[in-house]
Specification:
DNA-binding, 2 domains, homodimer, elongated, Arc Repressor Mutant, subunit A
DNA sequence: ACAAATGTAATCGTTACTGTTACTTAATTG
DNA sequence: CAATTAAGTAACAGTAACGATTACATTTGT
């Protein structure tokens, strides 16, 4: 949904867009969009104004926003988590499985984000615009 | 928890281990372990017998089991999912964001699993045994 | 036959997230 | 300056996923 928000903002190229409009495209509630926008603001990816005629717009060029940034802006927990209960430290495996897994998870997390980094919002826009042309030709 | 299970089985090297024992090391309930074992059986990573003196053991050498296999055996949904409600097809972005994101998610998923592939259960065991040596030296 | 262990279903509690309502706050416009 | 517009925010309901637990059936070895 965060990428969807940013894609619409990029599509609207600098115009301010309201949370209600974004919610209409995503098919969700404006409050959900506003919560997303708050996270995207913190990450300085969008800029939002209040009051009449207000709304949000991108804070930088779509080519300078990659999906790893979006992921980090919006996602506050990592892809993997260890169980809430601590393993039995009296067992040789239980004693060190946690830190072992954390290293493995950190590596996988990095690989995931590295892959997301490869795609920019501009790339996403290009795909969408290409699809639109296809639609029109029919 | 699945890696923990397999690590204990590898540590016990061929001996049959009960779900109660595994649960004791993980600090969870035997039924949770049995559910994991069912998934690991389906993936042919472990072999389980029923009845008195029964239990589970690895079905292949720890060096031939990598963590991507474990992940796929145990995890039935992917790391990313699209929202349950479909976007507004009347919006140019809403119309094609879904398939665009699915491509991006598939790539990230592959990157994640590729990274997990790099670590085998034997690697995990090595780390654990090395940690144990450290403990003993103190 | 008995005991040990898995397979399995039903249920509860917790957590996280989306959705919704309601209200406050801020900014623009007539 | 008042009215309107839109974001910020809190509170709460609904849903889904997962772990934990209990209970019971099933299988197997002694």
């Amino acid at each position: 949904m965060a990428v969807h928000v940013l894609a619409v903002l990029a599509y609207k190229d600098g115009d301010r867009v309201t949370s209600a409009f974004l919610a209409g495209s995503i098919n969700t509630h404006p409050v959900i969009v506003r919560r997303l926008l708050l996270a995207l603001q913190r990450a300085k990816l969008v800029e939002t104004s209040k009051g009449a005629g207000a709304g949000s717009r991108l804070n930088c060029s779509p080519s300078r926003i990659n999906l790893a940034q979006v992921y980090r802006a919006v996602e506050d927990s990592e892809a993997f988590a260890t169980p809430s209960r601590k393993p039995n430290a009296a067992c040789p495996v239980g004693n060190c499985i946690l830190e072992t897994m954390e290293r493995i998870f950190a590596s996988a997390q990095q690989a995931l984000e590295k892959d997301l980094e490869k795609t920019t919002l501009a790339n996403v826009l290009d795909i969408i615009k290409a699809s639109c042309l296809c639609e029109k030709k029919r």
